[in-house]
Amino acid sequence: MEEQSNLTDLLENLSRLQVRVPEKCKVRVKIDFSKGSRQFSAGAETAESAFLVNSDDSLCKSVVLGSIVGASTIAVGYPFDTLKVRLQTGTKPLFGNLYRGFMSPMCAVIPSYVPLFLSYGAALKVLGSDDPISIVVAGGVSGICYSFVMCPFEMVKCNTQRFGQPLKDVFRQVVAQRGAAGLYRGLGACLHRDIGQTIAYCTSAEYFTRSTWMQNHFGSATAFVSGMLTGLIHCNVELPFDTVKTRFQTGQYINYRQLLGEMFSGGVASGLRNIYRGYGVWMVRAPIVHGTSFAIVECIHPFLNKWIK
Predict the structure, then answer these.
(1) pLDDT of residue 7
(2) By C-alpha distance, which of 190, 181, 163 is closest to 244?
(3) How far apart are CA 271 and CA 260, in angstroms?
(4) Is 143 found in the same domain as 26?
(5) pLDDT in tens, 178-234
């Protein structure tokens, strides 16, 4: 009885202590009194907060985040995208009206970037974790969703950028010639591109923004620099498949074999040059666009965490 009384007093004293524990530190405490024995086991694990979305975040946060990231990415990066498409397809002149067709991807922000982030957040919720494997799986799932939503918009956008025709005219022409299914021309290349690039995007974003080394060396600029590095990595994964997709969508090829045969008809070196057309422009675009979007995400996170639970 005296031993139990002493233990009770000890627990009461501990309960009066005010111990501040960092938010990112999860502490698990287990007290076991089975069979008259007293066992105390405590484990502390440090889990860095995810940069994009956490597995326990509201899906509303994913919707808002997707809208903001999508709009900023397209607004900043569209002129570079136009140059890339013209280089990929051999269209001249390169410069002039670089925002032609801008409304197509901008109108696609809600139906494309929102499902991208929404499916990513939902996949993390199902997996119940923010660990690297979960991020890879969730990134792949979001890439599939993004492809199915974005392919019709890109079919119209790329033909507008190449041939310089109004969006409505291109849309009507595609539907008249190929039917509604023609809007999904190039879906296979889209899937190959987007599954790989979203996995690269999500894993790179979380790796760099959670890195203690990055935080120590770049401080408040960590988000911007992480975005620059993430952009370079994911765009290197994206570009080869994007070139094939763009050429297929804007050409009259029967299948991908015919397209690749033409691109590599001059040999491997010539084929690789064709595959990586527009590489310089795309690599200039990548750090600017993604560095900017990451900086914006960093700025709005406190508001999202406050207003969206």
Answers:
(1) 54
(2) 190
(3) 8
(4) no
(5) 999 999 999 999 999 999 999 999 999 999 999 999 999 999 999 999 999 999 999
Question: In terms of residue numbers, what domain contains 165?
Answer: 59-307
Look at residue 84 and tell me if it is in a domain: yes
pLDDT grade for 281, boundaries at 50, 70 and 90: confident
C-alpha dist (Å) from residue 221 to 20, 207, 276, 294 = 28, 15, 31, 10
Measured from the Cβ of residue 228, the count of other Cβ atoms closer than 10 Å reads 21
pLDDT value of position 33? 33
* CATH code, domain with 153: 1.50.40.10
* SS3 labels along 135-152: HHHHHHHHHHHHHHHHHH
The Cα–Cα gap between 89 and 81 comes to 12
Q: Please indicate, yes or no, whether residues 42 and 173 belong to a single structural domain of this protein.
A: no
Q: Give domain status of residue 53, yes or no.
A: no
Instruction: For the chain, give the secondary structure using H, E and C.
Output: CHHHHHHHHHHHHHHHCCCCCCCCEEEEEEEECHHHCCEEEEEEEECCCCCCCCCCCCHHHHHHHHHHHHHHHHHHHHHHHHHHHHHHHCCCCCCCCCCCCCHHHHHCHHHHHHHHHHHHHHHHHHHCCCCHHHHHHHHHHHHHHHHHHHHHHHHHHHHHHHHCCCHHHHHHHHHHHHCHHHHHCCHHHHHHHHHHHHHHHHHHHHHHHHCHHHHHHHHHHHHHHHHHHHHHHHHHHHHHHHHHHHHHHHCCCCCHHHHHHHHCCCCHHHHHHHHCCCHHHHHHHHHHHHHHHHHHHHHHHHHHHHHCC
